[in-house]
Each structure stands twice: as structure tokens, then as C-alpha cells.
Design brief:
Helices cover 30% and strands 29% of the residues. It folds into 2 domains: 2-119 and 293-323, Medium-chain alcohol dehydrogenases, catalytic domain (Quinone Oxidoreductase, Chain A, domain 1, Alpha-Beta Complex), CATH 3.90.180; 122-260, NAD(P)-binding Rossmann-like Domain (Rossmann fold, 3-Layer(aba) Sandwich), CATH 3.40.50.720. Strands 3, 4, 5, 6, 7, 14 and 15 form a 7-stranded mixed sheet that branches. Strands 10-9-8-11-12-13 form a 6-stranded parallel sheet, with helices on both faces. The protein is an alpha/beta fold. The longest helix has 21 residues, at 267-287. Bound molecules: NADP nicotinamide-adenine-dinucleotide phosphate. NADP nicotinamide-adenine-dinucleotide phosphate binds at residues 39-41, 121, 125, 145-146, 148-152, 170-171, 175, 190, 214-215, 236-237, 239-240, 261-263, 311, 314.
Length: 327
């Protein structure tokens, strides 16, 4: 199958090229890509700061949505033309892509491929970190730092659908208002001079069971203070820096857990287990309209660089997508 894809010429230049996509191997499907999701990791990869694993395509792009175009051996449950969204091992910034069948979600009728492309990375990241590592229970409180991010906006909706109370942070009043509209119970501006007092004023300081943290840095000691006894802090990003000075006593006194993960580190089996759980537990909430991706911008595939520029500017809210249909 001929495909067009985005090649990293250098950190400042992304260009459209063409080649032939190999047929799917056993356990894989080929997807005719309508839309591809843009992720922070793509920006880091373009800048040379995110090494590509040996078993992954060097082409950018970790998630796509479209229709099944070809089916490899030993794949059950998919037909040609089925609407799907999948996590891919690179190669998503393209008009067609290969995905493992067990890293693929069947899209319900209410989710088109535009919305579908915003789902795989966010759903799996939140599922693994908040629900598996964090073990969030419906009776508990979740704090989402970066509530307006692609990941954060889905995390809020997943936790609310699950029945939990959700507190979020975002940068600036406008983003806070938009995060509140996603269903968060409380949203605080992380640029406040008295953030800890703001948490105290809404009565959740020292009472948060699970924290999804993409900030790191100086938010790490803050998280220790905000966590409830037996609290779980799950680090998925370091937007405020990868180093933190911490007081260890809160870990002892409150029996805190500080953990984290990367999706690529999860491995093939871990990701497949996550997708099976998502299809069973979370996709019914998606089909019922309780979890809906928020799309910030859709950019033509050949203009992928402008999508990265928008993400790097930090002005976006929700997901940035590439339209791979017109290339
Ligand atoms: N570990 C994993 O498996 C995994 C998987 C996917 C993503 N991630 C990480 O999750 C994060 C979100 O990814 P994304 O693709 O959804 O990116 P994104 O939409 O660009 O989100 C970045 C988020 O970081 C927040 N932020 C930026 N600077 C901040 C600061 N100084 N203090 C506090 N918050 C700050 C932003 O908040 P405002 O916009 O409100 O300023 C925004 O919500 C990234 O760090 C990414 O690397 C990790």
C-alpha cells in the first residue's frame, strides 16, 4: 500500500515523503488513517530528546484513527472497513499505518475518526496510571495537574464517569473555566501565588487519594502535602522540571506511594492488557457520551510542523490532530 508520511529532516523541518507500507504481519492490521494525534512525545522526538526504541518506526506519530485496510494472520474480530483507533509503534503521521490488533479500539457509532484519533494515547495513559498504578476507587478524590492537556482532559472525564471527585489545575483563568466545563469539581490556577492555600480553601489539602502529575519539579513536595493518608502520586511528565527537593517524612507519616510510568516502557503485553480493560470498562462510557475528546486544532498532515509549534506555544486546549486524508 502506498503511503505518504512525515519525515524529520532536522529539528526545524518536517517534510512529506512517500513510500510503500509493508503488509501487516501476524497479529497486526493496516489502517487507512483519517486523523493522527499529536503528542508531547512527538515534539521531543523531533527535537532529538526522545530516543526511538529499536522495535519502533522512526516516523513520528503514536496514535491514529481510520478504517481497517488489511488484516494480518491470526487476527480475529476485525473486518475490512471497520472504524478503529489504535496506538502505533511510531508511523502515525502518515496516510496508512500498521497497528497491533490488540492495541486497537473499535470505535462506537457516536465517535468519528476525528474524535477517535484523540483517544488511544490518552485513554491508555490514564487507564494505566490512574486506574492501574493509582488504583482510583469511585469513592476517592483525584487531582489532575494539567487538566487542559490532551491527557488531563480525558483523565477528568474518565474519573468522573468512574464516580470519583475530581480536582484539577490549569494555567490561567480562561483555561480553568474550560477545564471546569469538562466536569471537574474544582479547578485551581497553578499560577496562583498561594496555591497550597487555594487547595486548603476548597477543603482538599491532605485529602487527595490519587494525583496524576505531569508537572514534577516543585510540584512534588506540593503533592506530598496535598495527598491523603495512603495517597498515590503518579508521575507521567516533568513540565516543571525533572528534579525536586523533597521532605521524606510525609512518605513515612502518610504511607505515600510515589510512582510513574511511560507508555513505551509498558511493553507490548502491558499495553494489550490495558486496551482489553479499556474496551471492557471505559469504551461503554465513551459510547454513552460520558467521555468525549476535546479537539483543539486539526492541521493538514503536510503542515505537521505548525501542529508542533502550536503544542510548543502552550496555547492549545485539548488535543491537536493531523488530517491525513487530503495529503
Ligand atoms: N508517561 C506517559 O506514559 C505519558 C503519555 C502521554 C503523555 N505524557 C505526558 O503528559 C503530559 C501531557 O501530554 P499531552 O500530550 O496531553 O500534552 P499537552 O496537551 O501539551 O499538555 C501539557 C500540559 O502541561 C501543563 N503545563 C505546562 N507547563 C506547566 C507548568 N509550568 N506547570 C504546570 N503545568 C504545566 C499544561 O498546562 P496549561 O496548558 O494549563 O498551562 C498542559 O496541561 C506531557 O508532559 C507528556 O509528556 C506522558
Amino acid at each position: 500500500m502506498r503511503r505518504q508520511y512525515i519525515d524529520i529532516e532536522n529539528p526545524d523541518t518536517l517534510s512529506l515523503k512517500a513510500d510503500t507500507l509493508a503488509a501487516p504481519s501476524a497479529g497486526e492490521i493496516a489502517i487507512r488513517v483519517d486523523f493522527a494525534g499529536v503528542n508531547r512525545a512527538d515534539v521531543l522526538q523531533r527535537l532529538g530528546l526522545y530516543p526511538v526504541p529499536d522495535d519502533a518506526s522512526p516516523i513520528l506519530g503514536l496514535e491514529v484513527a481510520g478504517q481497517v485496510a488489511a488484516i494480518g494472520a491470526n487476527v480475529e474480530g476485525f473486518e475490512i472497513g471497520d472504524p478503529v483507533a489504535a496506538l502505533v509503534q511510531g508511523g502515525g503521521y502518515a496516510t496508512s499505518a500498521i497497528a497491533r490488533a490488540d492495541h486497537t479500539l473499535r470505535l462506537p457509532a457516536n465517535i468519528d475518526s476525528r474524535q477517535g484519533a484523540a483517544l488511544p494515547e490518552a485513554l491508555l495513559t490514564v487507564w494505566h496510571n490512574v486506574f492501574t498504578l493509582g488504583n482510583l476507587k469511585p469513592s476517592e478524590t483525584l487531582l489532575v495537574h494539567g487538566g487542559g492537556s490532551g491527557i488531563g482532559s480525558i483523565a477528568i472525564q474518565m474519573a468522573k464517569a468512574w464516580g470519583a471527585q475530581v480536582v484539577a489545575t490549569a494555567g490561567g483563568l480562561e483555561k480553568c473555566t474550560r477545564v471546569q466545563a469538562l466536569g471537574a469539581d474544582h479547578v485551581l490556577d497553578y499560577r496562583s501565588d498561594n496555591l497550597i492555600d487555594d487547595f486548603k480553601n476548597i477543603g482538599v489539602a491532605g485529602a487527595i487519594d490519587v494525583i496524576l502529575d505531569m508537572a514534577g519539579g516543585d510540584f512534588t513536595p506540593l503533592n506530598f502535602e496535598l495527598a491523603a493518608p495512603d495517597g498515590r502520586i503518579v508521575c507521567i511528565g516533568v513540565m516543571r522540571g525533572s528534579k525536586a527537593e523533597i521532605e521524606l517524612f510525609p512518605i513515612l507519616m502518610k504511607r505515600l506511594t510515589l510512582t510513574g510510568s511511560t507508555l513505551r516502557g509498558l511493553g507490548m503485553t502491558g499495553r494489550a492488557d490495558g486496551f482489553a480493560a479499556l474496551q471492557r470498562v471505559m469504551m461503554p462510557f465513551v459510547a454513552a457520551g460520558h467521555i468525549e475528546p476535546y479537539i483543539d486544532t486539526v492541521v493538514p498532515l503536510e503542515e505537521a510542523m505548525s501542529a508542533h509549534t502550536r503544542m510548543q506555544s502552550g496555547g492549545h486546549f485539548g488535543k491537536i490532530l493531523l488530517d491525513c486524508r487530503q495529503a
